[in-house]
Structures are given as structure tokens and as C-alpha cells.
Design a protein that fits this description.
Layout lengths: L4 E5 H13 L6 E2 L1 E2 L1 H5 L3 H11 L3 E4 L2 H11 L4 E4 L8 H6 L3 E4 L2 H10 L6 E3 L11 H13 L5 E2 L12 H13 L6 E2 L3 H6 L7 E2 L18 E13 L4 E2 L5 E2 L4 E6 L16 E4 L2 E6 L7 E4 L9 E5 L5 H8 L3 H7 L5 E5 L3
Parallel strand pairs: 1-19, 2-10, 3-4, 4-5, 5-6, 6-7, 7-8, 8-9
Antiparallel strand pairs: 1-11, 11-14, 11-18, 12-13, 14-17, 15-16, 16-17
Helix pairs in contact: 1-3, 3-4, 10-11
This protein binds pyridoxal-5'-phosphate (PLP).
Length: about 350
């Protein structure tokens, strides 16, 4: 195998879903967010495993993602689309029996005209200013919208990954003011909000990243491991440079392994000089620049040349890699390359 292998533990995904489900009261539904191809890990195998674990509602970003999911999951689950009802998506929404989460008055009008009687949900803006009806618009269209019996009214927290932020309580209060007294199921919390406590749960939680082992769900089971083959090993003399722009020079004679992954495989170039990989149990520093398809690793301290190295493992997760690259686990997860072979544990 000439490329890396991304190991994805679907049993861990299911365990993380169950743990987040257990964080809320019995009557609260725990949905699953599998947008962006299941945060890069494969929306279909992930969603199938979660449906088996008991998830009944899935969220995706685009209608096309929703249609693909519908074909894989069959008719039973609800599939909700965060992009709402885009002008080109009417047919896809209809064929996929998708539930658009309406983010504006324009989408509401389009939906009620194009597909009267077809299920929909409503997104409200409670302060994030990204998607959702603002208070004034909501006040104006609520009678019409509620008469059409939305399946769900939801909003999204901007700062739930930071329990110290006052934004969450502020948004919670706004969400209550905008929705108290309506007889439609409500949802406010993604992973971070789910962990903020029961005040944030309403009728449904919508975790995504926590299912995949990412922060802010610190107690999550690790889901991904990444093993990458070594292409070539060679000696370098003291003073020789390695990689683009000669940013690293061997301080002493050593041995270098060139491994089969780079920034085109989701390992950010910003990791240059900040990445450590494992050869078995022995950490090895990556040296020089991360290039498009290759990383160079100092293996001078090993007894023999490794056949492969591991870049992600249960002790070195996406958040650690993300911190080294100056980004967040979400971005690392969703960038993990399409070139890797994916190996699933616990698939149907
Ligand atoms: C992505 C997203 C989620 C899931 O968020 P996580 O932080 O990954 O749990 C939930 N709701 C909305 C509106 C989202 O965009």
C-alpha cells in the first residue's frame, strides 16, 4: 500500500454518541451532525453506525449531502439541511425527503411556495449573526411559519466551546424569549452546548465534532489513527539541509526517513518544525518543511529503519496536531486527505 491508512473507529463514534446522549434527560433527542462528509471521516459509514446506535435525526450542510445520506439510510431517519432551501435545491429536497432548516425570510417564502406541505425547520439568529431569522423578521413571519407546522426551531451558539464566555447565557436567554410558548420542538446545543448543561438541551441536541473525538468533548473516545508508510531512508551529514528552502540543517550526522503524506493530505504546512511522529513507541521529530506529498523525519536515534510511522494515534489526537498547526481539531479532521485508504472498525 503506497499511501497512508486512516483508521476510523466507528465503535468509538457510537460510544461518543451514547455518552453525549446520556448527558441529557431521557426525553431529549440526540441527533448527529455529519456534514462535510462526516467531518471528513465518511458520512455514510458514520451515519449508518449511528442509526444502528439509535440516532433518528441527522444534520448535513448541503442538500446534495442529504440526498446521498437518504439513499444510504433509507426512509426512516429525518435528514435536516443547514443551508436551508436554496433556489436550485427544490428537487433534491423533494427527492431526498430532506428537511431544510430555513435561515431567512427569503428561504421561507421559497419553501412554502415551492413545496407546500413539505417538512421544514427554522433557524433563528440569537446573536451569532451567521444564519437564522433575526428577531424582527421572526416576529413578522412567526404566525405564518408556525401555521405551516415546522418540525424544529433551532439556533446555534457562537462560543459554547468556552464555558467562561458570557455569550452562551446571553444567547440562551434570547432563544427563550424568541421561542417560549411555541409548541414546536426546540434545539440550541451542538457539542459544546450539550456539555454546558441541561438548560441548553431543550428537545434535541446536535453534536458533531464530539462524536468524532474532538474538543470540546474532552472525555471523548479517540476515533482516528493515521499510519503512513516510509518511502525512503538515507543518511545525511552534519550541516546538510533537508527540504524546501533548506530550513533545517542536520546539527550532527543522522538518518532521515521520507514519509508518504503532506499538506495535500491534510497535514498543514504550518506543522513544519512542530510535528512529532511515532515509529512504534519512539517519537521522531519531523524536520524541514512539510511539502505537498511528503514529510521528512529524523530517525537517527532508531535501531532500524521503520516501515511506517504513525501521525495520529489515541494519544496524539487531532486537537494536539491542530494546536501545533495553530488551528482547531475541526479543520484537521475535515482536511484529512482523500488519498488515504480508509479502514473502518465496526462498519455494517
Ligand atoms: C456544525 C454545526 C453543529 C455541530 O457542531 P459541533 O461543534 O461539531 O458539535 C450543530 N449545529 C450547527 C448549526 C452547525 O453548523
Amino acid at each position: 500500500m503506497g499511501t497512508g491508512v486512516l483508521h476510523i473507529d466507528l465503535e468509538a463514534v457510537a460510544a461518543n454518541w451514547r455518552a453525549l446522549d446520556a448527558a441529557s434527560a431521557a426525553g431529549v433527542e440526540t441527533a448527529a451532525v455529519v456534514k462535510a462528509n462526516g467531518y471528513g471521516l465518511g458520512a455514510l459509514p458514520v451515519a449508518k453506525r449511528l442509526a444502528r446506535a439509535g440516532a433518528r435525526t441527522f444534520f448535513v450542510a448541503t442538500a446534495a449531502e442529504g440526498l446521498e445520506l437518504r439513499r444510504a439510510l433509507g426512509e426512516a431517519p429525518a435528514i435536516c439541511v443547514f443551508y436551508g432551501h436554496m433556489a436550485e435545491d427544490t428537487l433534491t429536497i423533494q427527492r431526498g425527503r430532506l428537511t431544510p432548516m430555513i435561515p431567512s425570510v427569503a428561504h421561507l417564502t421559497r419553501h412554502l411556495e415551492a413545496l407546500p406541505g413539505h417538512p421544514f425547520g427554522i433557524q433563528l439568529d440569537t446573536g451569532m449573526n451567521r444564519l437564522g431569522l433575526k428577531w424582527g423578521d421572526w416576529a413578522a413571519v412567526a404566525p405564518l411559519a408556525l401555521k405551516a407546522k415546522p418540525k424544529l426551531v433551532m439556533s446555534h451558539l457562537s462560543s459554547a466551546d468556552d464555558p467562561a464566555s458570557p455569550e452562551s447565557a446571553r444567547q440562551l436567554a434570547t432563544f427563550r424569549e424568541m421561542t417560549d410558548g411555541i409548541s414546536v420542538p426546540r434545539s440550541l446545543a451542538a457539542t459544546g452546548g450539550t456539555l454546558l448543561g441541561k438548560d441548553y438541551h431543550f428537545d434535541m441536541t446536535r453534536p458533531g465534532v464530539g462524536l468524532f473525538g474532538g474538543l470540546p468533548f474532552a472525555g471523548a473516545e479517540p476515533v482516528v489513527a493515521l499510519e503512513v508508510p516510509v518511502i525512503s531512508c538515507f543518511d545525511v551529514e552534519a550541516g546538510e539541509a533537508v527540504g524546501y528552502n533548506a530550513t533545517w540543517r542536520a546539527p550532527a550526522p543522522t538518518r532521515v526517513a521520507t514519509v508518504a503524506a503532506g499538506y495535500a493530505d491534510g497535514l498543514p504546512r504550518a506543522l513544519s518544525g512542530r510535528l512529532e511522529v511515532m515509529a512504534g513507541k519512539v517519537p521522531c521529530p519531523a524536520v524541514g518543511r512539510v511539502s505537498m506529498d511528503l514529510i521528512t523525519v529524523d530517525i537517527g536515534h532508531l535501531d532500524r529503519d521503520p516501515g511506517h510511522v504513525s501521525i495520529l494515534d489515541p494519544h496524539r489526537g487531532v486537537d494536539r496536531l491542530a494546536a501545533a498547526a495553530g488551528t482547531i481539531g475541526y479543520e484537521v479532521l475535515t482536511s484529512l486527505g482523500r488519498r488515504y485508504r480508509r479502514s473502518y472498525r465496526g462498519a455494517d
